[in-house]
What does this fold into?
Amino acid sequence: MSQKLRLESTLVASEHQVHRVLDDEAVILDLQKSAYFGTEGVGRLVWEKMQSPITVSAMLDEIVEQYEVSMETAQDDLLVFLQHLLDQSLIKFAP
It folds into this structure.
């Protein structure tokens, strides 16, 4: 049974990827699929934070603190982005 993504969820980057930060972009290589992904701005910040287990709510607080965005907009956008990363198996739920 798959877990539902919630603000209380703790996430972490999966082990089957390597990444580099180049200027404002995070470049991610999925070692299982041999596929590259890139994300910049807020996505780069989120990716860097997920190198260690972190809750969705803690990521949301970071985004609202660092960028001029409402909590509601940040939450909606973050949940969509995180679900995409989960769907691509680039991140996982931490125990």
